[in-house]
Design goal:
Elements (H helix, E strand, L loop, with lengths): L9 E6 L1 H4 L6 H16 L3 E6 L2 H15 L4 H22 L22 E4 L8 H12 L3 E6 L4 E2 L11 E2 L1 E2 L1 H6 L15 H10 L2 E6 L3 H8 L7 E3 L1
Length: 233
C-alpha cells in the first residue's frame, strides 16, 4: 500500500485478548479485523492497536495460583503483561506490511510512526491495557478510542448477575465512573479500568465500547453512522 507521511490523526483501538484467543487463536476474527483496518487505512485512517491478554493471561495466572497459591500481585501482573505482548506480536504479524515494525510498550514516550498502523502491548505492573491505551491516546493526541470486547453495551449493572441491568447508549465519564469499581485489580470485570476512566475523563477522550464479534458496528462507528454499542464521553 502507498500511504501519506503527513501528520496522522490516530484512532486508538483496544482489542480484548479473548477476541484474539478465546480458546484457540480466532483466525476468522483476525482475518475480518485485518480486512476492516486495512480498508480504513486506505481511506486515510490511522490506528494505534493495543492487545489485551484475555484468557491467555488468566490461564497462566490460574495455573500458578493452583500450584502454589501465594503468587505476588506483581508476578500476576507480569504474566498478564507478557500475554498482551504475545498477542501484540501476533497482531504485528497479521499487519506485517502495514504496521510499524516496533511494538510499543511504553505509551508515555513520543511515538514516531510513518505507518498507518502501530501495535501496542502492556507495559508494567499496575497498568492495565485500558490505561496504556488512554496514555497512548494522550501521547498521540488522539480524540477517539474504541474498546473492542465481548459485550454489546455498557450496562447499568452486570447483566450476568442482575436481570434488571439496562443497556446504555451514551453516558458521561462522571456517570460511568459511578457504576464501576473505584480501583483497578488484575482480575477486575469491568467494561473499562477505573484508573483509565479517570484519565480519559481528564483528557476529554471519547471511548466507544463495541462488541468485537460485531465488526460491522465498529465500521459504522468509524464512518460516523449509528451503531450498536456505548459512547462514553
Amino acid at each position: 500500500m502507498g500511504f501519506s507521511r503527513k501528520k496522522r490523526e490516530y484512532v486508538v483501538v483496544s482489542v480484548g485478548g479473548s477476541l484474539i484467543v478465546p480458546e484457540g487463536i480466532d483466525v476468522p476474527f483476525l482475518k475480518l479485523f485485518r480486512e476492516l483496518i486495512t480498508a480504513k487505512a486506505r481511506e486515510g485512517f490511522s490506528f494505534y492497536i493495543i492487545t489485551g491478554g484475555g484468557r491467555t493471561a488468566r490461564r497462566y495466572q490460574e495455573a500458578v495460583e493452583s500450584i502454589r497459591g501465594d503468587l505476588h500481585r506483581e508476578d500476576v501482573d507480569w504474566l498478564g503483561i507478557h500475554s498482551t505482548r504475545l498477542n501484540a506480536h501476533l497482531m504485528r504479524a497479521v499487519f506485517m506490511e502495514e504496521a510499524q515494525a516496533r511494538i510499543i510498550k511504553n505509551p508515555t514516550h513520543r511515538i514516531k510512526a510513518r505507518s498507518p498502523i502501530v501495535i501496542g502491548a502492556g507495559w508494567k505492573p499496575g497498568w492495565s491495557t485500558d490505561y496504556c491505551a488512554v496514555l497512548a491516546a494522550r501521547t498521540l493526541g488522539a480524540k477517539k478510542m474504541v474498546n473492542l470486547s465481548n459485550i454489546d453495551h455498557v450496562y447499568t449493572a452486570d447483566p450476568k448477575t442482575n436481570l434488571d441491568a439496562v443497556p446504555i447508549e451514551n453516558i458521561s465519564w462522571k456517570d460511568f465512573r459511578n457504576i464501576i469499581p473505584a480501583e483497578w485489580d488484575p482480575g477486575l470485570s469491568s467494561p473499562f479500568d477505573p484508573v483509565a476512566a479517570k484519565e480519559a475523563e481528564r483528557l476529554g477522550l471519547e471511548v466507544a465500547v463495541i462488541n468485537g464479534e460485531r465488526l460491522g458496528e465498529f465500521e459504522k462507528y468509524l464512518s460516523g453512522e449509528p451503531f450498536i454499542g456505548t459512547i462514553i464521553s
